[in-house]
Specification:
Layout lengths: L6 H5 L4 H6 L2 H6 L4 H8 L15 H14 L8 E4 L2 H15 L7 E4 H13 L13
Parallel strand pairs: 1-2
Helix pairs in contact: 4-5, 5-6
Length: about 140
């Protein structure tokens, strides 16, 4: 669920839809429902999207990520977490199709994969190395 202006508040803004629809992102959000649109257009602060299966979470996150990158947010400053490898692959594939570049810099993956990446990074390891911790 997105937090921010309500759908009613967005609809009450004069000429908001016409101005938005004239932009590239406006063409994208035109096919989204109100909740998805709120999430995609949410400001640059962190956003938690919680919804049931088949409700369009992946689509929403892909469009939001695309909008953030188009607005100048560096891909390396964006974190996308999911529970399954399948969902992470799907997000990455859709973003590659949509953006074509910069996707590898995203922090996108499962909770486990991202935590492992952070640990490797903090330990000074290369991306493909095996890290072993010694307990004393």
């Amino acid at each position: 669920m997105a937090t921010g202006p309500s759908a009613k508040e967005m609809q009450s803004q004069p000429d908001g839809d016409e101005a938005l629809n004239a932009t590239p992102i406006g063409k994208i959000v035109a096919g989204l429902n109100d909740q998805q649109r709120l999430a995609v257009l949410h400001d640059d602060r962190p956003l938690l999207v919680v919804a049931g299966a088949g409700t369009g979470k992946t689509r929403t996150l892909v469009y939001r990520t695309s909008r953030l990158i188009e607005d100048g947010v560096p891909p390396g400053k964006i974190l996308l977490l999911t529970f399954t490898n399948k969902a992470a692959r799907e997000m990455r594939t859709r973003l590659e199709r949509m953006l074509g570049k910069g996707v590898n810099a995203l922090w996108l993956g499962t909770f486990h994969a991202i935590c492992a990446r952070i640990l490797r990074h903090r330990a000074g390891c290369e991306a493909d190395c095996e890290c072993a911790c010694a307990h004393t």
